[in-house]
């Protein structure tokens, strides 16, 4: 047992949204050492998907996409983004608009969690009536897009002819957990959370899929479970019951697996601290800020009513149902996806 889980101060509401997780067909393969430290045996590379989330608000009929994965024509990235992406292997077969087909024309809002290529996709594939929503400080930092500004990360065509809304987290005193929050539909069904550190204007989304259960789209607050688990709230257990077909293909992981095996490969031999620390030797202030944001996420991840899904969770697809299904009932006893997913990242580590 860990220390008691802190309250999150999420206001009561009966209003809900429906959430589907879209596999954007994008993939990123990158050395773990460009994001986290220290190296842990067996986990040399991230090989991860890029999820886009479809949020449907029944009360208004609005349909919102939270992130768009990688555009299928990366040769058309803004030059600065192309150079940034060259440090990794990227694959993208389809745009989210292609996956949605005729439903793409019904999307009313696109929310960018942040400006990186693996989240912004190609908004020009959506109708001009589709609004683009960005985090606080985004326009100052990134507008105008390329080619109007040679060194911009984004393209002018990403937003040309459409409304762009920048979220103002100072507009209210609302705080959920320790994050500043914005009540997107004004009825408590969907919140944006200000999550500084990974980049300027980085946001997460918190969707109420049932009156008392939530999906937290954690964007790039973390890229791997080892950045946020274990914690003082949810320590590494004595034994871990992996229960997934992939366990067999990876071999040597019979259930239940003693937790001690993972304590032995933990850099601090700890049951209550995450395996990884963030790395960015060029900007220590940013790393400190991003780490603070991760510690705030711990409180949500420890809460039984909140299902945390990062944009790049490489284990989620074998546990959850993907688009066109919804994940609204993730907490149903027959599913219990939060528990099933929580420790799956440990399989990336090689234990004796
Ligand atoms: Zn990302």
Automatic annotation (TrEMBL):
SUPFAM superfamilies in the cross-refs = Metallo-hydrolase/oxidoreductase (SSF56281)
Q: Which Gene3D superfamilies match?
A: Ribonuclease Z/Hydroxyacylglutathione hydrolase-like
| Residue stretches making up the Metallo-beta-lactamase domain | 49-260
Recorded GO molecular functions are: hydrolase activity; metal ion binding
Q: Which residues form a coiled coil?
A: none
User: What are the entry keywords?
Assistant: Hydrolase, Metal-binding, Zinc
Family under the similarity heading: Belongs to the metallo-beta-lactamase superfamily.
State the protein's name.
Metallo-beta-lactamase domain-containing protein
Annotated organism of origin: Thyridium curvatum
């Amino acid at each position: 047992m860990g220390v008691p889980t802190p309250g999150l101060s999420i206001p009561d509401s009966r209003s809900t949204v429906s959430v589907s997780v879209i596999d954007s067909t994008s993939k990123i393969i990158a050395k773990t050492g460009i994001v986290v430290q220290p190296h842990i045996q067996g986990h040399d590379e991230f090989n991860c998907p890029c999820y886009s989330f479809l949020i449907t608000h029944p009360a208004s009929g609005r349909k919102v996409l939270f992130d768009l994965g990688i555009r299928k024509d990366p040769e058309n990235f803004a030059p600065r983004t192309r150079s940034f992406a060259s440090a990794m292997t990227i694959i993208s077969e389809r745009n989210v608009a292609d996956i949605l087909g005729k439903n793409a024309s019904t999307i009313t809002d696109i929310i960018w969690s942040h400006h990186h290529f693996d989240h912004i996709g190609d908004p020009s594939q959506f109708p001009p009536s589709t609004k683009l929503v960005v985090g606080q400080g985004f326009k100052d930092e990134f507008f105008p897009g390329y080619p109007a500004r040679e060194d911009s990360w984004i393209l002018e065509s990403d937003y040309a002819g459409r409304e762009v809304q920048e979220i103002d987290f100072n507009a209210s005193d609302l705080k959920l957990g320790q994050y500043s929050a914005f009540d997107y539909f004004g009825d408590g069904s969907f919140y944006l959370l200000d999550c500084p550190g990974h980049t300027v204007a980085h946001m997460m989304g918190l969707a109420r899929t049932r009156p008392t259960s939530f999906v937290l789209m954690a964007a790039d607050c973390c890229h791997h479970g080892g950045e946020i688990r274990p914690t003082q709230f949810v320590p590494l257990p004595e034994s871990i019951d992996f229960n997934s077909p992939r366990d067999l293909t990876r071999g040597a992981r019979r259930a239940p697996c003693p937790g001690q095996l993972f304590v032995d490969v933990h850099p601090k031999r700890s049951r209550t601290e995450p395996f990884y620390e963030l790395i960015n030797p060029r900007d220590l202030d940013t790393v400190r800020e991003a780490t603070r944001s991760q510690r705030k996420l711990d409180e949500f991840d420890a809460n039984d009513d909140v299902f945390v899904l990062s944009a790049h969770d490489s284990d989620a697809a074998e546990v959850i149902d993907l688009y066109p299904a919804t994940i609204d009932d993730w907490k149903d006893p027959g599913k219990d996806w939060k528990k099933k997913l929580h420790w799956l990242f440990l399989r990336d580590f090689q234990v004796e």
